[in-house]
Amino acid sequence: MKQHNCLICMGSNTYKEANIQWAQKQLTSYFPDIRFGSEQDTLPLGLTNPAHFTNQLAKFSTLLSMEKIKSICKQLESMAGRLPNDKKDGMVKLDIDLLIYDYQNLKESDLKKDYVIAGMKELDW
Question: Within 10 Å of residue 111's Cβ, how many Cβ atoms?
Answer without folding.
Answer: 15
